């Protein structure tokens, strides 16, 4: 295991992912975790991440007391990156000071001494790296050597081979450091002797073994499928472990996209052979949403109705099997459970930053279900890889995210008014199909249409019209937390707008949303 202690750098998750891409298992925990939680994980290598703090600030985060003794007496290798290097220098008896030169952005560094870190490079080898620091190592602790310097003469890399401490002042994990991956690879395999054995097949087998051991022969497990990648892969995995003791439910809340129910059910049943009960709760949801225009209110109502649908499903199972379901499968991913050291002033706490309304519904309180979360150590791309091994169709794995409250947050105002939902479904389908036909679906994080509760004047076939306006939104993003609007070619937009107005009755105007997140959010409500 390569353990990453997070000190709040925006690149920390990237380090974890880069290392995993070398087939080495890595985990990321808060940089202020207790010594016990570090020791319990039995890491072979510990990486101290970068971060926005200064080692001189009174509350700057650091590794726990006893950390140095522990790593030295257990032969653990330590690599500090940026702030991590400065922590090592400071805590082991050297000095960090505000540098005469601040180094931000692309920088050239040179290997100045034969060493472990750059063992595959000659002395004098130069490379471009990505720096981002205002302070620098001014005096090294005893036994440490400078092994690379920046073009301005600042310390770029240090090591103490005997004590197994290493440090890079720059960020090897970002693509702006083109040789950074090679440096990490060399460090892990040649310096630390780590094995590259981690792969998704093993993860899958481990998880299946775990679930088989956990679920008793007469236990029943439920899973709410949303039609998204995460819950589908989680359910497919659990089904492989316990077969038809898994009971999935897919709730049609009347807020799904064009033919979504049919398409999703077909994948579940025909391709994945998952035991799914499809509950048609359209009337239940829409009657509760009638007249509601406040976005938060809509979300709350939908959450509550989801809970009552799951509850009813659980009771059906209890009647059928004479025993309450014991477990609930959830497709929680690693980014939702990582705890990090938040940057100062960010307002984030050490705990999770998931928005509660992002979970589909939540759980009925009195069901007292225990959770099975087979994906909770994986990133989205790893879940897709797992899905591929589990034969989940590619087209399904590549689907854009779709929010739990569905089209309710894309029809502004009262969703039940007129044929808003129906118009939106048609517009959305034309937009998405055009994106697929143009071959750009995979370059976009998420694309959808929004129904606006206003009318504008138009002229169609010499007739004055007073019809609806729809907005098109497409964004690029890494994780949905920030996003940029997607820049379509004008010809594409022209074709789509024409097609929409020509084929969807009730729409005479199409606009495009060109705001990023922030200041907007991805969804309109
Ligand atoms: P926002 O609109 O907050 O969305 O920028 C970020 C990402 O989350 C999705 N989203 C949701 N997903 N339940 C979900 O399962 C929700 O209530 C929900 N609200 C937003 C949104 O589609 C985007 O991918």
For this entry, give a set of tags.
binds xanthosine-5'-monophosphate, Rossmann fold, GMP Synthetase, Chain A, domain 3, alpha/beta, 525 residues, nine-stranded mixed sheet, 15 helices, five-stranded parallel sheet, ligase, 3 domains, single chain, 32% helix
Sequence stretches where pLDDT stays below 50 over 5 or more residues: 349-361
Strand fraction equals: 15-25%
Sheet with most strands: strand arrangement:
2-1-3-4-9-8-7-5-6
Helix content: 25-40%
* CATH class membership of the largest domain: Alpha Beta
CATH fold group of the largest domain: Rossmann fold
CA radius of gyration: 27 Å
**Overall average residue pLDDT:** 92
State the end-to-end distance. 42 Å
Number of domains: 3
By secondary-structure content and strand pairing, the structural class works out as alpha/beta
Number of DSSP-assigned strands: 18
Summed up, the helix count is 15
Question: What's a quick, concise take on this entry?
Answer:
The protein has helices spanning 12-21, 35-40, 67-73, 83-91, 180-191, 200-214, 229-242, 260-271, 282-289, 295-321, 334-337, 380-389, 394-397, 420-437, 490-503, and strands at 2-6, 26-30, 45-48, 77-81, 95-111, 126-139, 145-150, 155-160, 165-168, 221-225, 246-252, 276-280, 327-329, 370-372, 446-460, 463-476, 484-485, 507-512. It has 525 residues and is of the alpha/beta class.
